[in-house]
Structure formats: C-alpha cells, structure tokens
Amino acid sequence: MAQAVAHRDSVSQTNNPQMLFWGLRSSVIIYLSVMIIMPLFVIGVEGLREGIDAFWTSITRPVAWSAIWLSVWTAGVMAVINIIMGTTTAYVLVRYRFWGKNLLNSLIDLPFAIPTLVTGVMLTLLYGPQTSVGKFLNDEFGIKILYSNLGIILSLLFLGYPFVIRAVQPVMMKLDASQQEAAHTLGASQFTTFRRVILPALLPAMITGGLLSFARALGEFGSIVIVSGNIPMKTQTAAVYVYAQVEGDKMASASGVSLVILLIALITTLGVDFWYKRNKRVGKKL
Amino acid sequence: MKERNLSLGGILLLLVVLIYAGVLLLAPVAALVSNTFKDGFEPFWKAITDPEALNTLWLSMRLAVLASIFNALLGVMVAWVLVRHNFFGKGLLNALVDLPLVISPVIVGYVMIVLFGRTGWLKDFPIKLAFSWEGMLVLTVFVSLPFVIREIQPVLAGMGKEQEEAAYTLGASPWGTFWRIVFPAIRHALTYGIVLTLARSLGEFGAVAVIGGGTQGSTESATIYIYRSLNDRNYAGAYSMALLLGVIAILILIIMNNLRVHKRGG
Prior knowledge:
Radius of gyration of chain B: 22 Å
Oligomer: heterodimer
Structural class of chain A: mainly alpha
Largest interface: A-B, 93 and 88 residues
CATH architecture of the largest domain in chain A: Orthogonal Bundle
Distance between the termini of chain B: 23 Å
Low-confidence stretches of chain B: none
Number of strands of chain A: 1
C-alpha cells in the first residue's frame, strides 16, 4: 500500500512540470534582466553619477548638444518622408496587380538584411564628390550629399524604408472593401474616399512604423560614420559623438549623451507599444 | 482591400514608388557592384582571398553562428515563458525585448566597457570581455536578441496551451511535449528568426568596433576590416568585402522570402 502511494507520487512528480517551469521562468527573468535591464541601469547610473547639474553641463556643451539635435532632427525628417513614401509603397503593393510585384515586395526588406556599414560604403560610391552622380549634383545644382546632413538623411531613409511599409501592409490588406464602396456610391471621389475612409484606419499603423523607424534611426552609426564626415558641430550625430568620446577614453562625456539618446528611443518605443495596444483594444470594441 | 488592375492613377503611383525604391535601394547597390568590378573580376578575387580579409570574415561568421545558436536556444525559452506564464513585470519585460533594435550599438559597446573595461565596475570578472572576441560575442547576442523571440511569440500565442496540457495529462514528459507538440508548430518561425539573427549578427559594426577595439588578427570582424581599409585607402579591399557582405545579405533575403511563403502555408 505504502509502496503504491510512493510509486504514484514519483509518477506524478515526473509528470508534474511545475518545478521545471518555475526554474525556466526564473532563468528567463534573470537572463532578460542581465541582458536588457542591466544596460539601462548602467547608462542611468553613469549618466547621473556626478549629479543632475553635471549631467546637464555635459549634454549642453555645444558639441554634445549639436550632436543630439542633429540626430533628432534628421531622424524626424526621415520619419516624415518615410511615413509618406512607405504608405504610398504599401498602397501600391496591396492595391494593384502588376508585373514584378513579388520582386519589389522582397526588395523592400533589403535594408533589414544589408549591414549598415555596407550601406554607407554604397552611398559613398554613388554620391561621393569623385563619382559621376555626385559631381553632376554638385556642378548642376550645388547639392552636396556626402559629408553633409543630406547624406545622413539619405542613409536613414534607406534604413527606415521597410518599417512603415511592413507596419501598414497587413492593416491595409484587412481593410473592409464595403466601406470604400459605400463611400464611392455616396458620391465621394477616390481622393475623398482615401482621406476620409482609408487614411483614418491606417493612421495608427503609419505612426507606429514611423516612430519605430525614428527610434531606430536615432542610434544609427555604421552608415553615418562613413557618409557624414563627422565634423563636430556640423555633421557629427550623437552615436558618432559617443564613439569618438569612447575611443578618446573620455568615458564621462559619453555618458550624458548616451543617456539622452537612450531615453528618447525608449520613450518612443514604449510609447508606441502602449499606444498600439490601446488602439487595438479600441478597435476591437468598435 | 481588394487587388485591382492598374488604373491611370495607379500607374502614376507605381512609377513614383519604383523611382523612389530604385534611387534609394538599387542605385547604391549598382554603384557598389560597378566600382568593385571596375577592373574586372580579378582584383575582387585577390582582395577577398587575402589572408587578412579571410581572417576577419571567419571571425564574423563564427560570431554570427555562435550568436544564432545561442539566441535560438534562449529565444525559444524566453518566448515560451513570455507567452505561457504570468508574472509581475511581464508587460514591461516583454516591451523591453525590443530594446536592442533601437538602442544604439555604440551605446551598448560603451556599456560593456563601463562594466568590464580596465577601470570598470566588474573589472575582476573572470572572463576577459573588453577588447576580446568573447566580448564581441556577448554584444552580437545582444543586438540580435529580439528576432527569434518575436517570430515565435505569435505562433505560440496562436496555438494556445490546450495541446501542451493534453500531452501532460496523457503522461508525456516536458521534453517529449516540447519535441512533439511545441517544436513542430514553431519550426518555420524559428528558422525565420534564426535567418534574421544571422543577417543582423554578420553585419554588426558599431558595438563590436567599440568593444573589440579592432585589433588586427584577433578582434577584427569583416565590418571593422571594411572600415579600416577605407581609412587606409585600401579601397579594393573595402569594396570587395562590402560587396561580399552585400551578396550574403541578398542570399539571406532570398532565403527569407522562401521561408515567408512556408510560414504562411504552415
């Protein structure tokens, strides 16, 4: 009898994975904490180690401040262009039948696959002052792309292109055709239908994709370090500034800028996450 | 939204998109290809079979493969726990999984030096992580951490936990349940995630440049090699390696595309 109970206990123990699950869960929490929470903690502590005043002084130094501002505004310009062109691209891909559509659709992911440093090299070869395109743009229009802010925006556009498209595409596919037809029947033009029916449904996905590309662009390093020329106060972005400080063993001046850039990226991503979930819930209710 | 044949407005929009995508994505690729093969195939071949170049490529591949294996194993665990379990702080932890995608690689490299550098917080850590390939591996794992997790999560959420629970009730072990129930379901998503991880790891530059220090022969990855070659005016070397990494990226893209078809079908 006792033996039978003991036997049953051992069976239920091997079949009861609770202990294992508990261990698994703890390991995962520890792993994510070490990999993700710890870096955040380190940046926070290093940035504020000498107090708020020192932090403020370190980021308001002209070189540091102009680097932060350059990163923010170039990423912002990119996000706006990207939202417009990304949505247009997604619309064409979802709406129309045309030859080569699958090829175009896979090409969109190129920036996800290609190393950003290689992007920088490619842009240099296309728009550099010695190349035919670069020379043409400079002689005819006085436009310099390389070693200027234009080059930075162009690298960011390359990098950010898939974000909006991949966010908008699935939403667009699910759009209800009957609403558009109703608007049409009621006499709305194609443009009005787009503005009043399609656009409001797409807006959350457009903004989500745009903000994600913005957050991603803020920290971009590989392509920018090659195309921008890294002139302090002019074409040096925050990530390149941090790199220059670390290389020069000036860790303290890297900490403030790191913290600012991280905070902006973090608020943007967490904000997107929160906002998207809320919108989804509202959408479900409707 | 229904698919339609091209209207006049559609043709105009398509043209705008084709020009934009062509100038933005294809023109740079064309510039790289034509510059690399400006003097024929031979300089390219010579540049990438240079022992120094091969060494850096070998290091990059080793880092990418090891990081992918590690992220595949841990990614499955993390995704499973985040989908099946509830615990305090799960929402925040789940949102933070995306952090490596948006935090600047340079800043992550900086964190590693703050922790493990000569005067770092953990300078007595038994494994040398600053200016070593082990440190580069840790950072490569970090920058590619979300991919496998984010691919598997929706699949696990979609299949629900009923099958797993049924397996336990019928006496299957956790290990058996994983191989017979969970793994077949997540297989395609896992492969897709691993491919994304490989692509991201192979191309990492900022983080490994900071932590590796780019010592020739030991901590110089393929991307760091490109950067140094540009600075040393070894343009043939830089362009050839960039092209090689670009070709690998395009191969990865083709694989991704085929896998996506599978994923949709499965």
